[in-house]
Queue: 3 jobs
Job 1
Amino acid sequence: MPSPPLVTVLMSVFNEPAFLPDAIQSIVGQTFTDFEFLIVDDGSTNVTSDLLAGIRDPRVRIVRNQTNLGLTRSLKRGVELAAGRYIARLDADDFAFRDRLEKQVEFMEGHKEVVLLGGACTLIDEQGRRIGLRNCPESDLEIRWTGLLTSPFLHPAAMFRRQVLVENNLSYDPAFGTAQDYDLWMRMLKHGQGANLSHPLIRYRIRSGATRLRREEQLNNTFQIAARTIAEELPGMKVDPEQIRLVWTSFSCADRAGDGGDQWERAARFYRDLFTQFATKYQSDKTNSALTSLRRRQAAEILRSMLRLKGPRGWRPLTVQLLRQDPWLPIWSGLKLAAAPVRKFSRSFRGFAHNAGRLRDSSPRSLLR
C-alpha cells in the first residue's frame, strides 16, 4: 500500500469555471510534489464539473456533493477525507506560486510548535492585474493580538497540521457560513503557535460580486468570533460584538474613524484597555520588545484617528494616558509616518522581485465571486 501524501491541498468549487484551470495548474505545477489535490465539487450545475472530469493528473482527487452544501460544509467534508500530514488551502479563483508548498512544508517541518502557517499575498483584480501586496502578522504574538479583532491569516494561503484537528476534534463549523476560517484558526491556536511567511505565497483575486447582505453577514460573524475569542483569552474583559464593531470601524480594520462622539471615546478606551489586558497576559522578558512595538502601533492608530476627526470627544485625557505609557510616542509616530512611503515602495519592490519569473503568462477571464 502506498504511503499517504505529505500534503493535502484542499479546494471547494461551485460553478466557477473561469479561473479554475489556472488555479489547478498552479498546484499541479508545484516544485513540491508529494501531495494530493482534493477538490470538492459543491454540486456545480455548469461546465465546472466537466472541467474537473477532464483532469488526468493522478494526484488530483475529485469528490462531488450531490447538492450545494456551501463552502463551510464542503471544506469540513474535505478535512474529513484528507490524507496528508498537512492541509493546504486554495480557492478556485486564486493562483499559488510554484514554490508555495515547498516553502510552507520546509517551515512546518522545522517548526514543530507551529500548527498553522500562512503568508503574504499579491493582490490582483478580476483581470489578473497586480494591484498591491498584502502582508500578515508574522510572529505568534502579533498573530494573537490581531486575532482578537479579525483573522490574522489569509484563508487560501493557509497550511495547518491535520493531526491537531484529529486529536482535538476540530474542523470548520457549519454554524458559520462566512468567516469560517477565522473561527477555526482561533480554536486551533489554543493547541500551538501560528506564523506567517513574509513573502507572497499566492495571487489573491479581489472580486466585486459580494452582495451587501453577504458582506454584513461576514462582518457580524467576525464580530461574534472576535467577542468570543476575547472572552476566552482575556476573561477580565467585558465584551460584546457591538464593541468589536466600534473598534473595528474606528481603528484597526477600516479607513474611517467613527463619528467623533461618545462612540469614538468608548471605542478608544476599550481598544486601549484591550491591549493592556493582552500585554499583561503575555508579558515576559522575551516579549517586552515586541509588546512595546505593538503598543506603539496601536497608539499610532488612535492618534491618526484623532487627527482625522480633528480632536474627537475624550482625546485629551486619552492622549495624556498614552504619553504616560510611552513618552517617545510622538517621535516614533513621526518617524513611522515619514518612512511610510519608502516602506511601501520597498515592500512593493520585494513583492515584484519575488514574483518575477515565477508566473506563467496567464490573464484570467473575469468572473464575479
Job 2
Amino acid sequence: MVVDERLSAAVLTYVGYDGLSAIPGHHPERIVDVELRARTETILAVVEQRAPGSQGLTKWGRELRAEIHAEHPELNDGAVAALVALLCFQWR
C-alpha cells in the first residue's frame, strides 16, 4: 500500500507530535479538513482500545508499533510513532 502523507501529517498534528505540544494528546481543532479529521479520529478510536499487558510499556510499545504498521500501512513511520507515544503516555 502507498503511504498517505496527508493522513500521516494529520495524525502527527492531531496527536501533537508535530513539535507544537509538550506532551501527546488530542487536538482535533488543529485538523481543519473535516474528512481528514474523521479519518484520523477513526484510527485513534481503534488504536486506543488497546491496553498493555504485564510485559511493561517499553515492550508493549514495540509490539504496538508492529501492530499499527500492519493494520495501517497507509501511515508513515512518524505517524505510527505518534500513535505509540500517545498510547504509552496515556498508560504510563
Job 3
Amino acid sequence: MTVEQLFKSNHQIEVAAGTEVVWADPRFDRVWFPVGSGAPRVDRGSEGLHAVFTRPGTFRGSFTVVAGHGTTDVYQLTVTVREAPK
C-alpha cells in the first residue's frame, strides 16, 4: 500500500482474515494501533511496515507520513477484516 492508495481509500482498508497488509511506501513513518485493541503488531521489515490481520473485526489506528519539510502528520486509519473465503 502506498500513501496515495491509502488517501484515495479515505484511510480505509478492507481485507480478508489472514491477509498481510504492507505499508510499502517510504513516506510511512509509523503505523500503530492502540494497545488492547486486538489489532496485530505492526513490524518494520525490508519491504516496509507490515502486519498480518488474522481475525475478523474493525481496527482503528493511526499512521504518520513524513513530509518534505521535516514535519510528520498524523492521520487516522481503519482496517476492516472480514471472514476469509471458504
